[in-house]
Amino acid sequence: MTDMNTRALDRELKRGAAELLILSLLDARPRHGYELSKLINTRSGGQITFHIDSLYPLLYRLEERGWIKGSWVEKPDERRRRFYKVTPKGRRVLAQQRKTWAAFVDAVQRVTGDEHA
Amino acid sequence: MPDWTQHVRPRLSGLRLSPTREAEIVEELSQHLEDRYRELIAGGATPDEATQLAIADFSEGNYLARHMAPLRQAHTPAPITAGAPGGHLFSDLWQDLRYAARGLFRSPGFTLVSVLSLALAVGVTTGIFGIFEAAFLNAVSARNIGQLRHIEPGDSAVSYPYYQYLSAANNPAILGLAAYTQSRLSFRAGDDVESVTGDIVSPNFFSVLGVTPSIGRGFSIDEQQPEREPQVVIVSHTFWKRKYGANPDILGKAINLNRESFTVVGVLPKDYRSIHGYGMAPDIYVPFNRQLVGDLDEPSLGTLQLIARVQDGVSISQLKSSLGTIVQGWRQLYPTDRRYSDKVEVYPLTGIEKMRRDGVPVELTVFLALLILIAVLVLLIACANVAGLLVAQGMNRTREIAVRLALGAARSRLIRQLLTESALLAFLGVCVGVIFYLAMATMVANVQIRASVPFELHLHLDRRLLYLCIGLVTITTLLSGLVPALRTSRDRWRLGSNQIGDEAHQRAWFRRALVAGQFALAFVLLISATLFLRGLAKNSHADPGFDVQHLITAEITLDKSSYSSIRAEQYFERAIVEMRRLPGVRSVSGVTVVPLGLERWAMSMDAGEHKVQLVYATRVTPGYFGTMKIPLLRGRDFQADDRANGAPVAIVNETVAKTYFNNNALDSLAYLPIPLSPFKIIGVVRDSKYGSLGEEPMPAIYLPVSQQDRTLTLAVSTDSAPAGTQTAVRKLLASLDPRVPIKIQLMQERLDGALLPSKIASFLLSGIGALGLLLATIGIYGVMAYSVARRTAEIGIRMALGATRIQVLRLILKDATKLVCIGIVVGSILALFVVQALAVALPAGMKVVDPLSFATIGGILAIVALMAAFVPAWKGSQLDPNIALRSE
Questions:
Q1: What is the rounded CA–CA span in Å between residue B575 and residue B577?
Q2: If 0-12 CB within 10 Å is exposed, 13-18 middle and 19+ buried, where does residue B338 land?
């Protein structure tokens, strides 16, 4: 594999994984951007961090694709916040991505597992 | 708390976000930073540290913009400042269109007047073009008409054997060869016998044309044999409707033609345009048949016209040369047949060449050219109107345009925007105009003129017309939109500049010139219409030179197969004798060419030392002049034995006697080419009209009826009103031989028919003239209303300084009067030229420049214009000076 192809794979993997993470977290309930970044950071044990300048463009991209939908929610004595939820289309994409991801991880494990067998 | 927006907003500046979206993103990201900040503070950080750490969440380099850049929302088009340079052709166009549509919707009065003006003009233009196209350019229904050609081998109509010979030659250049001839047949339904026109055709006629009947089928090839039974017929849509009430069960029905039974096998499509062109619409079509065409097998008797479908890629000269060889073959077969030369003529089914060959009269061509010219004039008036209204609108929008220019709109973009508005108007106008056209087409299609051959015109909405409409949209857009667009966008950005008084006047000169121009054009149109109306009046009262009130004409056609020349002569003699016995009949005689009909017989003549280029001729029976009440001035009438006694004799009219024989015509000789032989002149009769009521006295010669004549019209003169005698005449002729086709008409009806073209011309011109006047009136109303609106402040000042209402009224009307006067003067000068050109289509000896008409039309125009101007002028004079002064 050439260096360029490795980088392309790396980028695609990251992008695919990022989309999967966001959709999975929103599948449970609607959340706002800061909450999403905190959750990812905490649950990954600090392994995965989304910076502000990559998280929001990602959210906007998913929104433009119609996978998630953001809406402003106002609560008393608080500034309004933009909450995102998964759309039915996003849910279908999520199911598909979960399958693909599981198959991918499985394949990787089988490849890497053989080395140690 | 830091102002987070300051940290977010600059990072978005490189993107083309819509302001709303940008505000949302700034808010959302600021919220994120604030959350982070609070969390850090709660974790024990100092405010400065917390601020630094929160902002550190942004990566180095503007990643936010880079990640956002591929998103759609980062490319929202700039907000609409109408006229601002956008640089996107289609989105700009869409924006212009929406803007224009909103503008038109906002001023419904302006839109309605403009669209209707254009629609009327477009309706007139397309209508006239449609008629021209239906009657002349595309007058024949056929598939792939470019392949079809008229063929005249031997430079003549051909006989049936000749046609068979050509067909059998199997010329590879020709895909199909069909023949047809026109005939008059007697159609019998119950006791009614009616003379109808029919085309007798080769069975492949419709397949060569590529026309399929709308009901039933075309003729089949086995119907080729002229003696085949049962005989079949295809009828026209009009005939089917007229005689059978459009009964769908017509197929298989028997109809009686010339006493033979024919089975109906098909009905032609409603919009079928016959091979003859010019709207001629024969009633029925039958395959060649010995009963219907006498002497069908006589090789030298040519009555058939040929059409050929020519192989693609074969040039006219190739076709001519290939036919030339075949034609020579015929001459070898029939060396004595001198009728056909070796020449082969080939020409298209429609168009100028065909019109030239058919001898379409020059008057008709001039008249049609004139109509097209008029249509263009009306269109110009309508465009001027719309241009005027647009200029007025543009001036009202001076401030709007000034603001837009100040905000950075490019001038070219503004011009485009204004042109889009006029294009939208033009488009709407043309669409409504086409609706008018379609309504007119339906109307015209239902008009059938029952002349000696029925006429109908089928107007189509075809490709040519579509091109015309596209052309009209473009022309009207440019004519009505370009000048206003250029004017309004030029130096008009002095914000809030108020123009009063003379300055406004100068700016409005263009509109005023347009209105004056409209009146000039309306004047020309109305003068032309009056001229035709005067011509019509002159014709209606013209003395044809014979008795019209008490005459019945009965056209009788005997066919050669049943009537030998002796039998035909006997038939006519008996008919005349028996008809004279009918009560109320004063006298009866026969004539071959009835005056003022569609048929003419003209030839050249040698009269003494003179060669007469064109003399109208007709054959008459003894007593004809008495029946027609044409006075015999000198000499004697024909006698029964004139024909038998060798030496041919003739009677001439006064014009011939005066012009060519110095009033000494009696016993002189006239040489006619039929065959070339001398005729002794035995009498001189008074001049009467021959071809048309409007004609100058024409040379005419009368010859005795010959034995060869099988078509003769009996002129029946009655003591009282002739209508009552018509039935008796019909019954008598039916009792003599019911299968003989007869066409009975009052002379008065023929006269009405002769007046029809002038009536149509007058009607059309009056209608178009009235339309022109209406449009010009709208124009002057518009310009005056606008002028009053512009001069409100001026009026206020004048009234504040002591002007009375009457003075204000006079001031405004003076303006209108000036415009109308200029229009009338210019119109008169133009009209002087136009009427000279029209003279060709008018009755001879008519004074074309008639001061009375000029004065009347001028008066009418002035009154109408002042009435239209009075309304806004009155409103202006009623203004309250205080309000008027505040208006600026």
A1: 6
A2: exposed
**DSSP H stretches of helix in B248-361:** 316-333, 352-358
Q: If you write DSSP's letter for every residue of B627-678 in order, what string do you get?
A: HHT--EEEE----GGGTTSSS-EEEEEHHHHHHHHTT--TT-EEEEETTEEE
B184 and B195 Cβ atoms separated by less than 8 Å: yes
ipTM: 0.91
Written as six digits, the tokens of B670 are 């006239």
Distance from CA of B63 to the nearest CA of A (A): 6
* Gap from A88 CA to chain B (nearest CA, Å): 22
Q: Measured between CB atoms, which of A32, A60, A82 is closest to B73?
A: A60
B64/A56 CB distance under 8 A = yes
A115 pLDDT tier (thresholds 50, 70, 90)? low
Nearest CA-CA partner of B705 in B626, B616, B638, B629: B638
CA angle B815, B855, B863 (to 5 degrees): 40
- A to B CB pairs, distance under 8 Å: 55
pLDDT tens digits along B113-147: 888 888 888 888 888 888 777 777 666 888 888 88
Single-letter code of the amino acid located at B404: R
Task: Report whether pLDDT(B564) > 50.
Answer: yes
Sort strands B649-653 and B676-685 into parallel, antiparallel or unpaired: parallel
With a cut of 70, say whether residue B390 has pLDDT above it: yes
Q: What is the pLDDT of residue A3?
A: 46
Q: Of B115, B80, B96, which Cα lies nearest the Cα of B473?
A: B115
| Total residues belonging to chain B | 888
pLDDT tens for B41-65 read 999 999 999 999 998 888 777 888 8
Closest to B837 measured CA to CA, from B362, B408, B404: B362
Q: Which of A54-58, A74-78, B80-84 has the lowest mean pLDDT?
A: B80-84
Per-residue pLDDT at B769: 78
> Given a cut of 90, is residue B624 above it in pLDDT?
yes
Q: Do the Cβ atoms of B325 and B359 come closer than 8 Å?
A: no
Subunit contact B63:A37, Cβ cutoff 8 A: no
Report pLDDT digits (tens) over B764-805. Answer: 777 877 887 788 777 777 777 777 777 777 888 888 888 888
What is the length of chain A?
117
- Residue A78 pLDDT > 50: yes
Tell me if residue B584 falls in helix, strand or coil.
Answer: coil
Q: Which residues pair with B743 in a beta bridge?
A: B555
Whether the CA torsion B680, B681, B683, B687 is positive or negative: it is positive
Secondary element (H or E) of residue B60:
none
> Which residues in chain A touch residue B24, judged by CB atoms under 8 angstroms apart?
82
What phi, psi does B412 have (nearest 5°)? -60, -35
* Chain A contacts in chain B segment 60-119 (CB below 8 A): 62-64, 67-68, 70-73
Chain B residue numbers with beta carbons less than 8 Å from the beta carbon of A33 are 28, 31-32
Residue of A52, A64, A68 to mutate, testing the B interface (most B Cβ within 10 Å of its Cβ) = A52
A104 has a chain B CB within 8 A of its CB: no
Tokens 């409409």: give the residue.
B469
Q: How far apart are CA B397 and CA B405, in angstroms?
A: 12
Contact across the interface for B67 and A57, Cβ inside 8 Å:
yes
Q: Is the pTM of this model over 0.80?
A: no
Per the CB < 8 A criterion, the answer to whether B62 and A52 are in contact is no
> What is the end-to-end Cα distance of chain B in Å, rounded?
52
Task: Give me chain B's average pLDDT, please.
Answer: 80
pLDDT tens by residue, B830-861: 998 888 877 766 776 778 788 888 999 899 88
CB-count exposure of residue B472 (10 Å: 0-12, 13-18, 19+): buried
Q: How many CA atoms, within 13 angstroms, populate the side-chain half-sphere of residue B624?
A: 26
